Amino acid sequence: MKKEITRRQFVGSSLALGAGFLLPTIIPGSVWGQQGNTSPNNLISIACIGVGGMGMDNMSKFLTLPDCRVVAVCDAYEDRRKKAKEVVDAKYGDSGCAMYADFREVLARPDIDAVMIAAQDHWHAIMATEAAKAGKDLYCEKPLGVSIEQSRAIVDAVRKHERVLQTGTWQRSLDRFQRACALVRNGYLGKVHTVEVAASGPSYVPKYKGSLDPQPVPEGFDWEMWRGPAPAEPYNPGRVDWPDWYLIFDYCTGFISNWGVHHLDIANWGCPQIATTPFELECDETFRNEGFTNNSNGWNATFTYADDFKMIFKDKEQMKAGARFISDEGWIYIDRSGLWSEPASLINTKFKDSDDLLTDSINHGGNFLECIRSRKDPVSNVDSAHQASCLGMLADIAGRLETKLSWDPATESFKNNDEANAMLHREMHNGWSL
């Protein structure tokens, strides 16, 4: 950033004091259960950057885990900072939680071991790369930025500075997603020829219905800090309301990436060739145009690979949300409500000792804390986060250009299309840069 200016035993102990890392109605409680920095009392000290809906819930679940202590909160909204501090101080029975409006002050504290980043998507790249440079481990919400270039920058910073990054693709810490992907990867379904993926999109509509003219910035809200590297637009509540900012391209690629990342990640976990081998890509996409909203609304993308393998990716208005792996022998379908297969007996397969079961994470937060101590990669590590983030962003580029594209994952570039390659980059504004 430049501004001009035994593993299961550990996780089990975490679960003993709290049910999972949980977002109400979204993340089930069962999922959240060093060389390097740790606090003198052997607790991992954590600062929470961004304490709105997702950030507050992530923070609340860290408060249930016995191996860490939340020591600071940071947000552009004063009322959110104060509310978060009250929650932390009430948990610990003191007034020790510090508040900040500027994340750089958090990163400057040498006693902080890790940060939880849940600011808006357009902030992820700067905050995550600067946290890595500052020697902090990271729990960073998905997707990794709003461009392929930004996502790659996070990977490079995390690897260069030897940091641990866990991202919010928490489905990897649920048994049924692990079982589905292990069945596929260990060949119990036979050779998969098609993967179908769908995620929420058009069902989210703007909340704000008022005037689009500039309006006074509310007291206690740092609009310039919230806006950060996004274009220098004047304040209007329609830019910051929920879910409105998700629907504005300045702050988010859209649910094609932000929501799609969850099930695209599971598709890629079950069939790793999805992100690691070349493909051709076509996408029929519609875009929002109500108020300030202008990013992806609905989509129908086809990823075509060698050996007659393909992935179909749509919004859930066109196909049931989740991931389905299909072979000539049957199929396995997984979403947040359950696991099904044809033949039905397939999902009850008893694994062999020689099978790769992918992970033993049963608590997403506990897995992160354990990996801070062991310095191993967590279940949703930076590379898998990058791959899943990019798949949705690539589909969006194809949809915007309305043309077939050819992607080379080795170079992370499109073949013979300068216009598409230019879209791998996003300009930053207001003096901010990576």
What's the CATH H-level superfamily name of the largest domain? Dihydrodipicolinate Reductase, domain 2
Which structural class best describes the helix and strand composition?
alpha/beta
Q: Provide the CATH architecture of the largest domain.
A: 2-Layer Sandwich
- The whole-number mean of residue pLDDT values reads 92
Shape category = globular
Helix content: 25-40%
The CATH first-level class of the largest domain comes to Alpha Beta
Radius of gyration: 21 Å
From the structure above, extract its key features:
single chain, 434 residues, alpha/beta, Rossmann fold, Dihydrodipicolinate Reductase, domain 2, nine-stranded mixed beta sheet, six-stranded parallel beta sheet, 15 helices, globular, disordered N terminus
Could you characterize the architecture of this molecule?
This protein is an alpha/beta fold. 32% of the residues lie in helices and 20% in strands. It has 15 helices and 17 strands. The protein has helices at 7-16, 53-62, 78-92, 103-107, 124-133, 148-160, 175-185, 223-227, 237-240, 255-258, 260-270, 273-276, 364-374, 382-401, 418-422, and strands at residues 2-3, 44-49, 68-74, 98-100, 114-117, 137-140, 165-167, 192-199, 279-287, 296-304, 310-315, 322-327, 330-335, 338-342, 405-408, 413-414, 432-433. The strands form 3 sheets. It has a 9-stranded mixed beta sheet. Helix 11 (260-270) packs across helix 14.
